[in-house]
Amino acid sequence: MRYLTFALAKGRLAKKTLKLFEEMGIDCHEALDPDTRKLIFINEEHKLRFFLAKASDVPTYVEYGAADCGVVGLDTILEEGRSLYEVMDLGFGKCRMCVCGPESARELLKRNEIIRVASKYPNIAKNYFFEKKNQTVEIIKLNGSVELAPIVDLAEVIVDIVETGSTLKENGLTVLEEICPLSARVVVNRVSLKLEHDRIKGLLDKINELISND
Ligand code: PRP
Fold first, then answer.
1. Above pLDDT 70, what percent of the chain?
2. Which amino acid residue places its CA nearest to atom 5 of ligand 1?
3. Is 9 helix (H, G, I), strand (E, B) or coil?
């Protein structure tokens, strides 16, 4: 039997997913070791292979079939726009994609002005402003600490993830509009879903059982 390969977005989502697998009786202790620098792990008993990748690369590995399945946030799925099946909401990693800024920027959003929007998620930002709101804006791609942008006048607003809201609060910013709720999802390669249907469905059913008992 071939290995069924899972690409996990490294960090909190991978940790939660590996713990879920442990609860299903699939040994993942090696991958859960906080000191390990290894990127790929094999479970011989269940013929499973896990690897840890940067979140934004998970949809790429899955689209090309280098991984049969992936676990990644909906934010990354929407941003990357890859061709794959999204098959399950794992219910953890819950947060929201929002337009945020200082309270004073609320008016600019209402008045449909041409404003600058900074984001790690330029495609989500573009889609929201151009398609949903019909507002022409300038999108500025950043790679992190996006909350800085309105403070130092790089942009009027940002499109970013809000979890607890404390980053916004500590920087004098607020949620101005909500784009969509987010959480961790299981994605599957289009061909794998056909060729490995029974194995994948078996695993998903077990995961579903576990998360619905939580
Ligand atoms: C994310 C996000 C916000 C923050 C939201 O950033 O981009 O900045 O977390 O969380 P909160 O609402 O609980 O404060 P991350 O920690 O991934 O760092 P980054 O901005 O450098 O990418």
1. 100
2. 162
3. strand
